[in-house]
Specification:
Arc_rbn_hlx_hlx; Double Stranded RNA Binding Domain; 120 residues; 4 helices; Arc Repressor Mutant; mainly alpha; TA_system_antitoxin; elongated; three-stranded antiparallel beta sheet; Ribbon_hlx_hlx; Type II toxin-antitoxin system HicB family antitoxin; single chain
Length: 120
């Protein structure tokens, strides 16, 4: 069974978002549900996040709650197959040709441009 130090040594992904209403920054760990904190500066928010991560893991261990290990990029191949209507395929092919790039590069560009709209 893993102990606190084992989990603290793991590289959990941290999300930092500017709080435009209250000011400062909000930090959360997507793999640790409900583990969230904030700080006036990015540096303060990150320092607080480390403390929050420790407190969250300690509480989970005490309560016997399963702790998810961090997500890893190694779990993803970077490839997926997508079926689309022929008319959309034609439009994407034409637009990518006009831009002078492959359709694959064009689709990656479109996805990255709209990543804030992706479900998290």
């Amino acid at each position: 069974m893993k102990k606190l130090n084992d989990y603290m040594a793991m590289s959990y992904r941290m999300e930092i978002v500017e709080d435009k209403v209250e000011g400062g920054f909000i930090v959360s760990y997507p793999d640790l549900p409900g583990c969230i904190t904030s700080g006036e500066t990015v540096e303060a928010a990150v320092a607080n996040a480390i403390d929050a991560k420790k407190a969250w893991i300690e509480a989970a261990l005490e309560e016997g709650i399963d702790i998810q290990e961090p997500d890893s990029l190694g779990d993803y191949s970077g490839q997926f197959k997508l079926r689309i209507p022929r008319s959309l395929h034609r439009t994407l092919a034409e637009n990518s040709k006009r831009e002078g790039i492959s359709m694959n590069q064009y689709c990656v560009y479109l996805l990255s441009r709209n990543d804030t709209m992706l479900v998290k």
